[in-house]
Amino acid sequence: MRAAVMYGAGDVRITDRPDPKIHRPTDAVVRTVLSCVCGSDLWPYKSMPATDTGRPMGHEFLGVVEETGADVAGVRAGDLVLAPFTYCDNTCDYCARGLHFSCRHGGRYGFDGVDGGQGEAVRVPQADGTLVKLPVDAGSALLPSLLTLSDVMGTGHHGAVTAGVGPGDSVLVIGDGAVGLCAVIAARRLGAERVVLMGRHTTRTDLGRDFGATDVVAERGEEGAARVRDLTGGDGVEKVVEAVGTRQTLDTALEAVSDGGTISRLGVPQYEQGPVGPSMILRNITLTGGASPARAYIEELMPDILAGTITPGRVFDRSFTLDQAPEAYQAMADRRVLKALITL
Amino acid sequence: MRAAVMYGAGDVRITDRPDPKIHRPTDAVVRTVLSCVCGSDLWPYKSMPATDTGRPMGHEFLGVVEETGADVAGVRAGDLVLAPFTYCDNTCDYCARGLHFSCRHGGRYGFDGVDGGQGEAVRVPQADGTLVKLPVDAGSALLPSLLTLSDVMGTGHHGAVTAGVGPGDSVLVIGDGAVGLCAVIAARRLGAERVVLMGRHTTRTDLGRDFGATDVVAERGEEGAARVRDLTGGDGVEKVVEAVGTRQTLDTALEAVSDGGTISRLGVPQYEQGPVGPSMILRNITLTGGASPARAYIEELMPDILAGTITPGRVFDRSFTLDQAPEAYQAMADRRVLKALITL
């Protein structure tokens, strides 16, 4: 089969890889229908050392079950299914606590002999725990929005949930990437009255306004934090979703959050050390967030997509074929594309 | 009046200061009955640059109201009252959110012309918001335990509350100082089944066992964290109260906490930067805690002291007169005394 494989920074190729087969009785093989490129795929695209073996890419996909192992009972050949961005048993104590990223039998696509999601097919371990049958057919116009439940919408939702967003809240979302925009949807969905979106790409922040952002702050750093404080009565906001992952955006979050507030981080930090000294304690600031248990949120969020109340699929602003995947990476890295859909 | 004043590291003197008077109609003057030395008083005792003016010390005290300003309605001359470690209006939006340390009309004893608590009398601003009338007389044997509600017991409670401790939990408390020991009381009081106390001073950890610690770990650093993981099934504990404030104890907390766990910090950090990089995100670790809203917890905790169900006053292992306050500081700095009571 053909699949996108990264061989180093800036070097994504479509290569032939072995057709996936059932290895374990808990596996399923899924023929990919839709995949996409994640903002987190751009970090290795910028920095991965060159390698001969390459790394199969992609962790967001939906497709049709082709074959199942003997122990798989929840899905069968022909089912249209969605896969969250890590596989998981969905039954261990970590999964029970909503920590699917830490699942005792879980793992990541593209590692440990498991295919990536940007390819024609994927062997999915722990198929019963991982895959969710979709109540639409493969021709549904809702597929892009449903695909966001694999990662980006579940991740935005995780930010709003861990920040403690509830009815009437004011929330700051830092970052106008696809995760930030989904965090806007999630914050509004959870009842936030005011959602300030920090971003400077007008087409993205316009989409953020469509998603429910009430204010947009284009300034960055101290200037941006001051603007947020001005907008929210001077004290800053109680709930911040930090959807970028740089030290600058963490600093901005700390400057914009009010005493007693919560900062939820979603982006994988591009730093090791951060300012967690006396001021954070004296101001009672909480730092939370993390890798979303996307699997756990699918059942909660899917009805809103089916009903049309949320339309996170709008983050996909351009569609590519699998052969065009290298171009999709470059377009996202150049910020010409917000989030690239890959159709198979 | 006489009061303890710090003039630099290791230099606490009993000096004459002006008798407190009512400055504002919201003030009260309280004649001190009991005060004490806080672990946080030891940081300036170790590092404060020498000064001619000096800093009045102490922020934990109870005493008898001597005089009240025209606007004070809640307490009157002759009342035995307890003061939390910062004064506050107890009505502003921050106080309403349980953030008394950030009170819009609040402040700290020993700063901005306000007396310290280690002296014969204190002018207490915002008396109605700050002072709580005690339902015992000045001869009560419960006074030391009631005094802990001024700071140390409320602070330990804040750690357990912000760590999210509830029935059946396993909790790690790092530090066998008075705050750590009060966190043990608080964790058990909130229903924790297992409380692992990390400390190496046997007399203190023995008191911790009396307070409800189920396990004591004397090892520090990586070795200590490994021991905690061994004791708790290998994955670490979900709730950690970090009651020391060094980088080493933060590292220990991060090593001992399980994926998805919460670390609540109570000690003022003796560091500015901490490890909040990718591992914290991928493991979904939450960092919380802060300065306790002691005022907010008094009503909740006092009944347990009056009923004798908790006895936090046992952290006071030696009593000093005000004239002996310099000696009390040195005894605590030398770890000869756990927490020094000052009687007036």
Judged by helices, strands and strand pairing, the structural class of chain A is alpha/beta
The biggest sheet of chain A, with number of strands, parallel, antiparallel or mixed sense and barrel status, is: 7 strands, mixed
Give the number of DSSP strands of chain A. Answer: 19
Q: What general form of chain A does the structure show?
A: globular
Descriptors:
homodimer; 344 residues; alpha/beta; 7-stranded mixed beta sheet; 6-stranded parallel beta sheet; 19 strands; 29% helix
Brief rundown of the structure:
The structure is a homodimer of 344-residue chains. By secondary structure, chain A is α/β, with parallel strands linked by helices.
Q: Describe it for me?
A:
- The structure is a homodimer of 344-residue chains.
- The model of chain A has no long low-confidence stretch (mean pLDDT 97).
- Chain A is built from 12 helices and 19 strands.
- Chain A has 344 residues and is of the alpha/beta class.
- In chain A, the strands form 4 sheets. In chain A, strands 3, 5, 6, 9, 10, 18 and 19 form a 7-stranded mixed beta sheet that branches. Chain A has a 6-stranded parallel beta sheet with strand order 13-12-11-14-15-17, sandwiched between helices.
- Helix content of chain A is 29%, strand content 27%.
- In chain A, helix 5 (152-162) crosses helix 6, helix 5 (152-162) packs across helix 11 (294-307) and helix 6 (178-189) runs parallel beside helix 7 (202-211).
- The first copy, chain A, has helices at 42-47, 93-96, 127-130, 143-147, 152-162, 178-189, 202-211, 221-231, 247-256, 278-282, 294-307, 325-333, and strands at 2-8, 11-16, 28-36, 55-56, 61-68, 80-83, 86-87, 107-108, 121-124, 132-133, 170-174, 194-198, 215-217, 237-242, 257-265, 273-275, 286-289, 316-321, 339-343.
- The first copy, chain A, is globular and about 60 Å long.
- The A-B interface holds A 94, 97-99, 101-102, 162, 250, 259-260, 265, 268-269, 271-278, 280-291 and B 94, 97-99, 101-102, 162, 250, 259-260, 265, 268-269, 271-278, 280-291.
- Strand 16 of chain A pairs antiparallel with strand 16 of chain B, so a sheet runs across the interface.
